[in-house]
Amino acid sequence: MKSVGLRPVNWIGVLLLQSLARTFYRMSAEVIHQVEEALDEDEKEMLLFLCRDVAEEATSLNIRDLLDNLRERGKLSDMDLAELLYRVRRFDLLKRILRMDKMAVEAYLRSHPHLISDYRVLITEIGENLDKSDMSSLIFLMRDYMGRGKTAKDKSFLDFVMELEKLNLVAPDQLDLLEKCLKNIHRIDLKTKIQKYKQSAQGAGPSYVNGLQTSVRNLSLKDPSYSFMFQNGRSKEQRLTVKQPDIQREPVKTSIQESGAFLPRRSPGERYRMRSKPLGICLLIDCIGNNKEVLQDTFTFLGYEVLCYSHLTMNNIIHVLCQVAHMPQHQDYDSFVCVLVSRGDSQSMFGVDQSHSGFRLDQIRRMFTGDACPFLLGKPKLFFIQIYAKSESRVEDSSSLEVDGPAVNNMESKAKRPGPCRVHQEADFFWSVCKADVSLLERPSSPPSLYLQCLSQTLRQGRKRPLLELHTELNASVYDWNSRVSDKEKYYVCLQHTLIKEIILSPA
User: Fold this and answer.
1) How far apart are CA 218 and CA 258, in angstroms?
2) C-alpha to C-alpha distances, 454 to 142, 337, 409, 466, nearest whole angstrom
3) What letter does residue 208 receive in the DSSP assignment?
4) Are 426 and 441 in contact (CB under 8 A)?
5) d(CA 174, CA 194)
6) Which of 157, 275, 453, 469 is the most exposed place for a label (fewest CB within 10 A)?
7) How confident is the model at residue 476 (pLDDT cuts 50, 70, 90)?
8) Least confident interval from 78-82, 151-155, 444-448, 468-472
9) pLDDT tier, 76 (very low <50, low <70, confident <90, very high otherwise)
10) Span 79-116, pLDDT tens digits
């Protein structure tokens, strides 16, 4: 008797598929275990918050149960897990566990639906940009809506938002209250992020752009905010981070505070002129002594006239900076670079005479603003600073990232005055500061700065590419190093900028 319409079963194929399925299941359990072991408590909290929309019971689960739950429901493919690790910026786990890199995940997210909603990404980005003072102010402002009992001072921002969600005060389409409070605490950068999110949700805004672009535009250096901090093998940003006109669907979360109310917006495709020969003066002051040669070679290769000074006292450093700031040659050149390597603390660099109180980093920057150094007005001014400090001294707390209220008001009033000059005095700065523990210099053979080594290599290899893009790669290299070493050997990188055009360190 013939069977009609049926084909012979390929039992070998079935058995092979079953074997593969069992192998995948075991591998997935192993991967979940590895991820749970590697995440710290802050990252676990962030992951649970991000997954609230895809697992309603997320906040009542631990990470292992959450990921296992998603897997059993078919919502945890390799790329889903890659997105989650990407969102908490554990690029080391992407590489070590999933054998993927950040760029591959970003490419995937640009062309595929996301597991995590833009709303959840927005909230976590806002939370990463808030410091303790901001949180205290937010909690106080919300008392009129939540009552005192709901606003414990020790709440994290994500816990705080979940309370607001329970009270229907915050939702993906209900962000007006949060936006108003951010405005009241003068976090216009974060208010702008919410506005961009709303525009995107309505389909009225521009398409999403690269995470670097969304995170490093139009920052006024008066803001105490843009820092990529690398700790325990991953990047953390304490207050950067960071100026952001757009909320991105895909790339990297950075946190840079934005206060570009009186700075011109960066025009797409517009580039700083880099045609002079040389491109400019590169001032190199190395008070440690183990970085000078490689840096001198790098910036000479890039086309700069390098002025080198080693082991200077504090008075000599100030004298050299003043002399260079007033050099008439700047009027003939298209840019300026300053590299400083020294012991210091969160606010100052010291030089070789450590008994001196030091010279504040914000004062160094002010020496090269448009009004102090008119020959550099409208031209990019690039600073790369390596500070070796005691571990309790944090560069991200530096007053070099702050300006007093009266000074801010004074700058704003200057910016509003009519006149022939339309360029703001603090525009066109690129301010990259790296802090390392001073104990690195107390070893028998103190190593060169990893940050400066990566900087030299990245600039040499990528001289035809935008500087912001290169600095992102530098961050990745430092991050990879930090994931493999002890706390005393880690480097903490902070980037600020007020660039209003793209800059490529090559004649164009």
Assistant:
1) 6
2) 45, 17, 38, 16
3) P
4) no
5) 10
6) 275
7) very high
8) 151-155
9) confident
10) 889 999 999 999 999 899 888 888 888 888 888 888 89
- CA 505, CA 274: separation in Å to the nearest integer? 7
Question: What are the helix (H) ranges across 206-309?
Answer: 211-215, 292-301
Q: What is the DSSP secondary structure assignment for residue 283, as one 8-state letter?
A: E
CA dist., res. 366 & res. 411, Å (int)? 12
Query: Whose CA is closest to 87, among 109, 67, 69, 111?
Result: 109
| 431 close to 392: Cβ distance less than 8 angstroms | no
Quick one: pLDDT at residue 263?
44
State residue 247's pLDDT score.
Answer: 35
Phi and psi of 338, rounded to 5°? -135, 125
Q: Distance between CA atoms of 24 and 32, rounded to whole angstroms?
A: 12
**pLDDT exceeds cutoff 50 at 351:** yes
141-160 burial, b at 16+ Cβ within 10 Å, e below that, comes to bbeeebeeebbeeebebbeb
Report the C-alpha gap between 399 and 21 in whole angstroms.
56
The count of other CB atoms within 10 Å of the CB of residue 247 is 27
Q: Which residues are paired to 430 by β-bridges?
A: 382, 497
Cα distance between residue 148 and residue 144, in whole Å: 8
Residue whose tokens read 């009519």? 418
Asked if 320 and 327 count as a contact pair (C-beta separation under 8 A), the reply is no
The H or E element containing residue 17 is helix 11-38
DSSP state of 382: E
336: helix, strand or coil: strand
Beta partners for residue 389, in sequence order: 437
User: Is 42 in contact with 11 (CB distance < 8 Å)?
Assistant: no
Count of residues in the chain: 508
Token pair listed for 57:
């019971």
Cα distance between residue 323 and residue 340, in whole Å = 16
The one-letter amino acid code at 437 reads D
User: Cα separation of 362 and 431, whole Å?
Assistant: 10
Q: Are 252 and 241 in contact (CB under 8 A)?
A: no
Helix (H/G/I), strand (E/B), else coil: 66: helix
Model confidence at 30, in pLDDT bands (50, 70, 90)? confident
What is the rounded average pLDDT for all residues in the chain?
76
